Amino acid sequence: METTFSEKLYIGAEWLVRLAYLQVLFFAFMIAGAGVFGLFPSLAAMMAISRQWLKGNHTSPLHKSFYNYFKQYFLVSNALGLLLSFASVGIVLYIYWFLQLGGIWSNIYIYILYLLLFITILVWIYWLPVLVHFDIKAKQIFKYALFVGMMRPHYTLLLLLLIISLYLLSLLIPGIIPILSISLIVVGWNLIIQRAFQKISEKQRQIKQV
Q: Which of 107, 200, 108, 106 shows the shortest CA–CA distance to 149?
């Protein structure tokens, strides 16, 4: 049975309201967590909820689900997120320092640091989806995030295209930034990376069957 135009319009409006409310919850819980300590658990909660939506689960109360995920991931997301933040800042500062020094050895260290920065960026992209998708130990999350990033680099490019597209859309519709921008990025982020997870799982199953 085909969906009528009015039904499609209703579904679209329902998604817009859902995404807007999710973004409101993100800011509310981030503020409640004292900003820095609320950022990563709020992102993890958004990621977990959008994962449930993509699986077809739209019935759970949004506020209650967000609160439960926020509590569940509060410690581990803060520990990993702050560790990754300090590492990233440290790498950038070292790059800046060696650029000021100059010389052959400084250039060698700079190339090494650029490689580390690239690895760190891959981990940044994948660690939150890995956290909410897999039941693995915290110390394995960064390793698995890097593994996914190295195995599926084209999904990383798709994610960058998504961010660029949303940025261009925000220029056309300025009001979208405070209302939908973060929730749209997280849902799109999850959609792309869940696909990467599926492809890796299929590949692993094929290898086991050989």
A: 200
Q: DSSP class of residue 35?
A: T
Residues across the chain? 210
Tokens 């050989």 — which residue? Answer: 210
pTM: 0.85
Domain assignments of the chain as residue spans, ordered by start: 5-209
3-state helix, strand and coil shares in percent for the chain, rounded to the nearest 5: 90, 0, 10
DSSP labels for 102-150?
A: -SHHHHHHHHHHHHHHHHHHHHHHHHHHHHHH----HHHHHHHHHHHHH
Number of continuous H segments (helices) and E segments (strands) in the chain: 7, 0
Q: How far is CA 102 from CA 84, 88, 91, 99, 116, in A?
A: 27, 22, 17, 6, 19
Q: If you ran DSSP here, which 8-state letter would residue 60 be given?
A: S
pLDDT digits (tens, 9 = 90+) for 171-180: 777 766 667 7
In sequence order, the 6+-apart residues with CB closer than 8 A to the CB of 98 are 106, 107, 109, 110, 113
In contact, 44 and 69? CB cutoff 8 Å: yes
d(CA 118, CA 65): 34
> Is the predicted pLDDT of residue 45 greater than 90, yes or no?
yes
- The C-alpha atoms of residue 130 and residue 133 are separated, in whole angstroms, by 5
Helix (H, G, I), strand (E, B) or coil at 166: helix
